[in-house]
Amino acid sequence: MDESGSPQRPFVRLPPLGALRAFEAAARRLSFRLAAEELGVTPTAISHQIRQLEEALGRPLFVRRPRQVALTETGAALAPALSQAFAEMSAAVEAARSRPQPKVATLSATVAFTAKLLAPRVRRFREINPGWDLRLHASDEAVDLHAGEADAAVRYGLGTGGGLGRLPLMRDRFAPVASPRLGLAGVEDLARHPLIHFDWRIAGAATTPSWSVWAETAGVPLGDARSGLTFNDENSAILAASAGQGVALLSLELVAAELASGVLVQPFGPELDGWRYDFVFPERAADRPAVRALRAWIEAEFSRSGPSQGG
């Protein structure tokens, strides 16, 4: 019995498919020559295939007469079953060939960008690209676009890498934000609340937005600007700030919804420059339908939302 409860059929080693196909055509046409024309081979090849099949079965399939062949009793019994089997295989192959291919476009972006700026906009993707499905790949590790791990990506930082085309999206800005429940009135109130940090994955830049850089820019002494609460991702830092757990130095683009709704407030400046978000794709794949679909969506959404453009 198999897993479905049906009795298992004993394994039977089938003769070569080519020999079965040659016999089926010759049996249907009752002619080696016509079978050869149908299959695009020589009559000698048909004769050889059928002889091979007869040897495998241990019995003749045709009575060979001058310029004429006739089926033996075994051949007459075998031919209809093979004709039906080949017809069903042809129908199955044609159905598979004509089955619509799903159209899926995969966009990779950081976890925070995906959650805050892409997920709220996914409905528009299908409106702009009917018949397409969208797959969002959220990761803070850059995927290999040249290897096909995604069709395109939104990258943030100092460069895009070789062989990639890019579409500048926005220049980021950072500022202190907090829950209005903390009642921050001025920079002097920072001393009463924990500072919220997140670990940057972009290394090698002295201008990485941080509380230390902000304090130097603002001319405000913060004591130990590295103390407080530290998270390894921006989403967690945003949630902690929204819950009133402290004051966070966050991307104003990523917390735009929280600022608009009043969940977070920006009590004071100054603002720090961040880097630019770019829509990137392999240059050799610029005309691929999936890349075009993603680009049309990204351009429409970010031009509608009106982010600041980076140079």
What tags apply to this protein structure?
single chain, 311 residues, alpha/beta, Arc Repressor Mutant, subunit A, D-Maltodextrin-Binding Protein, domain 2, rod-shaped, LysR_subst-bd
Overall mean pLDDT stands at 87
Find the structural class using helix and strand composition. alpha/beta
The main sheet orders its strands as 4-3-5-10-6-9-7-8
Work out the helix count: 10
**CATH H level, superfamily name of the largest domain:** Periplasmic binding protein-like II
Helices and strands, in order, run as: HHHEEHEHHEEEEHEHEHEH
Low-confidence segments, given as residue ranges, are 305-311
Instruction: State the end-to-end distance.
Output: 68 Å
Beta content comes to 15-25%
* CATH topology label of the largest domain: D-Maltodextrin-Binding Protein, domain 2
Instruction: Identify the overall geometry.
Output: rod-shaped
The CATH class assignment of the largest domain is: Alpha Beta
Radius of gyration: 34 Å
Largest sheet: 8 strands, mixed
Strand elements, count: 10
The total tally of domains equals 3
Helix content: 25-40%
Q: Please give the CATH architecture of the largest domain.
A: 3-Layer(aba) Sandwich
